[in-house]
TrEMBL record:
UniProt keyword list: Membrane, Transmembrane, Transmembrane helix
Name this protein carries in UniProt: Stage II sporulation protein E
Keyword Membrane: yes
Source organism of the structure: Leptospira barantonii
UniProt xrefs under SUPFAM superfamilies: Galactose-binding domain-like
High-level lineage: Bacteria, Pseudomonadati, Spirochaetota, Spirochaetia, Leptospirales
């Protein structure tokens, strides 16, 4: 009897593999749908160099590249590299698109990647940030939103998003912060800008307060605490602005903004 149940268990494990791949099903693209990892589906990461186009086409054609070793990756989140010599990784997200949608413009939100990236959707480049050959940091706190042409999306079928990420930090790589999502491009942009402009509005209030204390110091120079509080508040406003996504509209090189941000942080936290 024991061997009978053991054989049944063996057959069950063969016919129902425990580690089967689960692909996320997107219900609609007319809204902004989360792509973050859950208990039901994840992202994947490969530490080796991959031909992103051929890898994508192999997946779309139902073929599995046995030479590519993918690991489960929970996004957003930092992936700790086993070796500092690894400079670039490939992050993969597979999903099944809905059969139909109404929106004319679809986009994907990738959060803040640990610096430079090239992003492919179904084997076609849809966006890139930074120069892969540069040794300087260029965008490791920038939220990426890339448009996806409607004709690239396979309706009711599997699709694949492949991101080549070049790190800046020694052992950390991946979609570090924020969140990942796909859906209506206008809704996605509006959501991001609304959040950033609300922060700007709050900074303007703090800037007014800082200016007021400096004005009090000009009127009464004996009260030096007004000077210190005013300068502290204004520096804090500049620091918080340098952490806002709107700063990228200024056209200033990323490295200079980061240097100023860290200088101000050093002054604020002695």
């Amino acid at each position: 009897m024991f061997f009978y149940y053991l054989s049944l268990l063996f057959i069950f494990l063969i016919t129902n593999p425990i580690f089967s791949e689960s692909i996320q099903k997107i219900s609609t693209l007319d809204e902004v749908v989360s792509l973050d990892s859950t208990t039901d589906h994840n992202w994947e990461i490969a530490l080796q160099k991959i031909d992103l186009v051929s890898f994508s086409h192999s997946f779309l054609n139902g073929k599995k590249d046995s030479n590519v070793r993918l690991e489960v990756y929970k996004a957003p989140g930092v992936y700790k590299l086993p070796d500092e010599s690894i400079q670039t990784v490939t992050i993969v997200k597979k999903f099944i698109a809905p059969k139909e949608w109404k929106t004319s413009a679809v986009a994907v939100r990738l959060g803040t990647l640990t610096d430079k990236d090239k992003t492919y959707f179904n084997g076609v480049l849809i966006g890139a940030t930074g120069d892969m050959n540069s040794v300087y940091p260029q965008a490791y706190d920038k939220i990426r939103i890339y448009p996806i042409p409607n004709d690239l999306i396979r309706k009711g079928e599997s699709n694949i998003l492949v991101i080549e990420v070049k790190k800046f930090f020694k052992r950390e790589v991946g979609i570090e912060q924020d969140r990942t999502a796909i859906g209506d491009a206008s809704l996605m942009q509006r959501e991001l800008l609304r959040a950033e402009y609300v922060k700007i509005l709050l900074l303007m209030i703090y800037l007014t307060v800082g200016g007021y204390f400096l004005f009090l110091y000009v009127r009464r120079r004996m009260d030096r605490e007004n000077l210190y509080y005013g300068l502290f508040t204004i520096l804090l406003v500049v620091y918080q602005f340098l952490r806002n996504q709107i700063k990228y509209d200024l056209g200033i090189e990323f490295i200079y903004m980061k240097k100023l941000e860290y200088i101000i942080l050093t002054i604020l936290v002695p």
